[in-house]
Amino acid sequence: MARVYCAAQARIAPKLSPAEKIRGKFRQGEQDYRRRRMKTMPSGIQKKKRKPSAEWARRTNYVPLVERGAFQLPQAADYLSVSITQVRRWIHRGLIKRIPGIRVIVITKAECDRFLREQTDIADLAA
Q1: Which residues are within 8 A (CB) of 84 and not within 5 positions of it... i.e. 6 or more apart?
Q2: Exposed/middle/buried for 72, CB within 10 Å: 0-12, 13-18, 19+?
Q3: Could you give the CA distance from residue 18 to residue 16 in angstroms, rounded to a whole number?
């Protein structure tokens, strides 16, 4: 004898594919987690607010660029007035030499000055 379903039963529990069953279990677990968290967290206590990134404690170097002996990549880009990507390209092409044996890219001020001097010399010859 075949089992007969009425329309009300079909609305309550529709047939789900295996993926939909898994997704439904995940959503149910997520709802349970939220419900439990709301019960355990006292209503008077609020979550600690995150500081804006401008107020983060960062190590900053207050020595002006013109007084430094060497630069890391972002400072070298600022000194040369170009982007960080452009400085990387120049290093790859061999136009600027980095200090070898250091994980961080470090370029001496003398190397930056030499590069700028060469570029102005080339510009003078072209003009």
Answers
A1: 73, 74, 77
A2: middle
A3: 6
Please tell me the distance from the alpha carbon of residue 37 to that of residue 33, in angstroms, as a whole number.
6
- pTM exceeds 0.85 for this model: no
Q: What are the C-alpha distances in Å from 111 to residues 74, 87, 104, 114, 122? A: 15, 12, 16, 5, 17
Question: Could you tell me the domains of the chain?
Answer: 67-126 (1.10.1660.10)
Query: For residue 108, is pLDDT > 90?
Result: yes
Q: Which two tokens stand for residue 7?
A: 């329309």
The residues that bridge with 107 in the sheet, in sequence order, are 71
pLDDT score at 125: 79
pLDDT per position as a tens digit, 51-66: 887 777 777 777 787 7
